[in-house]
Amino acid sequence: SLKEYYNNYGVWFVLVAGFTPLPFKIITIASGLFQLNLIVFIVCSLIARGSRFYLIAVLLYIFGETIKKFIEKYFNILTILFFILLIGGVLFLGYL
């Protein structure tokens, strides 16, 4: 049952964990344990981790040193809040 659930929603777990400061190693181990498709895992990892690092790179390129301290201090909190609001919004719209 848990394996089915992870295989159905594992893509979302990998995408969210790859973008947020959650320990990605835990998702990696869980994906192997529940035998998530390797190609799916690699593609989702590239999208999530690449998006995170490119977002930081673009912000640093545009705003320079002025945003560096802000990113170091608040980026992890902001990504967690973003995904909480995103999931909450999806759940809210699902109940309407």
Write the layout of secondary structure elements.
Layout lengths: L1 H18 L4 H10 L4 H26 L1 H31 L1
Helix pairs in contact: 1-2, 1-3, 3-4
Structure in a nutshell:
With 96 residues, the protein is an all-alpha fold. It has helices spanning 2-19, 24-33, 38-63, 65-95.
Note down, in words, how this protein is organized.
By secondary structure, this protein is mainly α. It has 4 helices and no strands. Helix 1 runs parallel beside helix 3 (38-63) and helix 3 crosses helix 4 (65-95). The protein starts with a helix and ends with a helix. The model has no long low-confidence stretch (mean pLDDT 87).
Query: Which ranges are low-confidence, i.e. pLDDT below 50, for 5 or more consecutive residues?
Result: none
**Secondary structure tally, helices:** 4
Order of helices and strands: HHHH
- How confident overall, as mean pLDDT? 87
Q: Given the C-alpha coordinates, what overall shape results?
A: globular
The number of strands is 0
Q: How big a fraction of the residues is strand?
A: under 5%
Structural class, please?
mainly alpha
Rg calculated over all Cα atoms: 15 Å
- Main sheet, how many strands, which sense, barrel? none
Q: How far is the first residue's CA from the last residue's CA? A: 28 Å
Give helix % range.
over 70%
Properties at a glance:
4 helices
